[in-house]
Amino acid sequence: MSTADLSSSTTMDLSSYIETKPSILIGDSLYFTLELGNAILKYDLVGQSLSVIDAPGVHDQMGIVMVAEDGGLGFAAIEGNNLHIWSWLAGDGNSVGWTPRRVIQLQSLFPVHNPPIQSELIGFAEGTDTLFLETEVGVFTLEIMSGKTRKVCETDGHYTVLPYMRFCAPVNSMTME
After folding, report:
1. What is the sign of the dihedral through the CA atoms of 72, 75, 30 and 128?
2. Reduced to 3 states, what is the DSSP secondary structure of residue 44?
3. Is 149 strand, coil or helix?
4. Bridge partners of residue 25, in order along the sequence
5. pLDDT tens across 116-151, in order?
6. Edge-first strand listing for the sheet containing 138-143
7. pLDDT digit string (tens) for 37-51?
8. What are the residue boundaries of the F-box protein AT5G49610-like beta-propeller domain, all occurrences included (predicted)?
9. Measuring CA to CA, which residue among 122, 17, 29, 24 is closest to residue 77?
């Protein structure tokens, strides 16, 4: 992991771009998926610093950052017909790194097709254990813990999904006359 402070005199050479996949806020840091899910860009809001974290080892298809079961940084990626989910452990110097948490076989979750359905992760619903996957037969939600899937729309070239759970407008305490 490399770090560069954000200031007018410091630059960070990234040889990749930030994906238009969902980013996440965990604690005091924002996390963004970099080009094709090969790395994660972390922006520490308090320390005002950037760092790059290598993504876990599966890169056949693009992965995305997500909130892990413990509320920390997580990562999900698809290899073949398996969804791999990891958690980032940031403890003392001996325990920093990715830990595999779950492998879900996608083939059994979707309608039977020959050849197998190709899936791409296109989003997650923060605060739940739900991922969004686009397949050639539609866009599905996948509840990670239960393995339940639900078709939410037809396939139409979706690249990303940014769901929101509710919208709360601030209340103006001033009365209008």
Report:
1. negative
2. strand
3. strand
4. 30
5. 567 888 888 877 888 988 888 888 889 988 889 888
6. 119-125, 130-135, 138-143, 149-153
7. 788 999 999 999 999
8. 8-167
9. 122
